[in-house]
Amino acid sequence: MNHHSSALHPKSSQDRLGRFLASWRVDYVRRRVEPPVLDVACGDNRLAEYFADATGVDVVDYGAGAIIVEHLDSLTFPSDYFATVTVIASLNYFSQPERVLAECARVLRPKGKLLVTQTRPALAAVWHKVREPWAKVGSYSRSDILTMCDETGLRLVSSHSFMFGMNRLFVFQSRQ
Ligand SMILES: C[S@@+](CC[C@H](N)C(=O)[O-])C[C@H]1O[C@@H](n2cnc3c(N)ncnc32)[C@H](O)[C@@H]1O
């Protein structure tokens, strides 16, 4: 366990608005989850509350029972294990997002689903300046995410707008 991670990575906003938006997006994503599920950069681990077989992992300890690691791109979970992996509102914080996505692909079982959400880039550009300027980029676009997944064997099967168009969910399927 790395107790220095919160110093290295600032905590994402946990105020009233932050918690409200987190509940909204997690509630949307959870309906598409089949356990066992791994929630990568799980924050306060709220997705895990909905499933008996759920694991949250993060680099910052929010005190919610997640596994805390130094890097999200080299996890100790076995390959081909999870039916679903989620990366909710987090890709834009990672220094090497393509490496984290490759790790998600590794731990997914064949035909498993990777669910990635990102705020719409135009909105995120403003939002992150105000709320969380340490985020690496405001948000990644669909084509950015597709490029990152190029060599992972993940295939985009659908994408959905939600939260009145503010947010997008990308559903990938792992190799057969
Ligand atoms: C906006 S929060 C989203 C949390 C949760 N998935 C949710 O939807 O509520 C972004 C997450 O990215 C994590 N994070 C921040 N900086 C990071 C970094 N450099 N590398 C990996 N994860 C990071 C934070 O700890 C936080 O849990």
UniProtKB/TrEMBL annotation:
Pfam families to which the protein is assigned, alphabetical: Methyltransf_11 (PF08241)
Domain Methyltransferase type per the UniProt entry, residue ranges: 38-116
Gene3D superfamilies in the record: Vaccinia Virus protein VP39
InterPro entries: Methyltransf_11, Methyltransf_Superfamily, SAM-dependent_MTases_sf
Lineage top rank: taxon: Bacteria
Residue runs in coiled coils: none
PANTHER family to which the protein is assigned, alphabetical: METHYLTRANSFERASE
Protein name (database record): Methyltransferase type 11 domain-containing protein
Native source species: Thiohalocapsa halophila
